[in-house]
Amino acid sequence: MKLCKMKVMLPLILLCCFMGISFPAMAKDFLYIPCVNALQVIDCESDTVVKTIPYNDYILNAAYSSDGKRYYLNAIHSIYVIDTVANKLIDTHKISSELSKVDIFGMAVSGDDKKLYLSCSIVKKKQNIPKLNVYPPQLVVYDLAKRKMVKNYQIPSAFTAIVTLRNDPDQLFLVGLDIHKIDLKTGKFQKMMGLLNPEKSEKGKNALVIWQNNRHDDHGIFANPYYTATGMGYFIIDKNTGKISTLKGKDILFEYSNVVSPDQKYIYGVMDELIKIDMKTGETVKMISVEKGTCYVVNQTSDGKKLYVGPAGADVSVYDAETLALLGVIPLAGDGVIAHIIPQ
Questions:
Q1: What is this structure's pTM?
Q2: For a 10 Å CB count at each end of the chain, is N or C smaller?
Q3: Maximum Cα interatomic distance, the chain, rounded to a whole number of Å
Q4: DSSP of 312-326, one letter per residue?
């Protein structure tokens, strides 16, 4: 039977070669780390820095386009645009002006890649008048082509994370003191989960939500640690369906951020330790101290084999995802707080 299959396949392969048809190349993982004053790009096969893109700024967080070809860096008052195919800085959007100071916290890219969603704090003044007008927190819809705000919504508080849904471009999850959903067509808010302001049926939760360590081509499952008065757990947002669920952790562990493995069997977390959690039971599978100390971010390669821990200081560490053995440390040009794997 195998011989027969080979006899059928061989002419097809030869025909493809003769006609100049080639099979599509597998995407290769690159880790993008916005450091102080420079974005560094790491080849995840060789674990070396292959590109340094300079700028003169500090990056609070970042978000990628739906196809991974653009990487947007939030410099609080400006947005830098990186072409990830050419690996170069191609544009800068100045969000603040002399008379309108805008601080950007959470940021996300719309599903059609035409707009940015920005959680903003805005202070305005008039020329030669010693008075400041402090506006309520705003969710700003910024049109990239028009280079201007096209819509805004008053929000309950400044949200540190904006989670887009893949199946519904008109709905956003806003994560901060609580988790809300907003309908962009109507402007209607719906409280999805209480964190610091729980409902009677909920326990109060404390959660720092800055990092979304997903890839543009992954399973779409976002996880983040939370803490209660007596324990910890994880809230999980499925970007495909809009479903929110929770997983109770069996141990109390300190984590800044999480990444869900490609097979959705494990949640990895990091702070002073690198932690591997069973995604079905919440049990701690393995935990080790991070070689270089406190880190904010953990990313995992598309094949699930390697973890990239960091930055916080001027380095990122590489670990084996199965054993959590340290594979190496990659020095960086400066400190950073965010990183994403973008396959190319």
A1: 0.91
A2: N
A3: 86
A4: SSSEEEEEETTT--E
- How far apart (Å, rounded) are the C-alpha atoms in residues 234 and 236? 6
CATH topology match: 59-204 vs 213-337: yes
Q: CA torsion angle for 318, 227, 173, 199 (degrees, to 10)?
A: 170
Residue 182: predicted pLDDT? 96
Whole-number Å distance between alpha carbons of 309 and 312: 9
Query: Do residues 88 and 70 make contact, with C-beta atoms less than 8 angstroms apart?
Result: no
Q: d(Cα 85, Cα 288) in Å, to the nearest integer?
A: 36
Smallest Cα–Cα separation from 100: which of 139, 135, 69, 75? 135
In tens, the pLDDT along 237-255 reads: 999 999 999 999 999 999 9
- Coil, helix or strand for 221? strand
Q: Which two tokens stand for residue 13?
A: 């392969």
Q: Around 177, how many Cα atoms within 13 Å sit in the side-chain half-sphere?
A: 8
pLDDT exceeds 60 at position 6: no
Q: Which amino acid is at 315?
A: D
What Cα–Cα distance (Å) separates residue 31 from each residue in 9, 133, 143, 245, 268? Answer: 37, 41, 27, 29, 17
Tens-place pLDDT, residues 198-245: 988 888 999 999 999 999 999 999 999 999 999 999 999 999 999 999
The model's pLDDT over 303-342, given as tens digits with 9 standing for 90+, comes to 999 999 999 999 999 999 999 999 999 999 999 999 999 9
Residue 207 contacts residue 226 (beta carbons within 8 Å): yes
CATH code that applies to domain 59-204: 2.130.10.10
CA torsion 243-150-340-269 (nearest 10°) is -40
pLDDT tens track for 183-203: 999 999 999 999 999 988 888
Q: Which two tokens stand for residue 152?
A: 């805004």
In the chain, domain spans: 59-204, 213-337
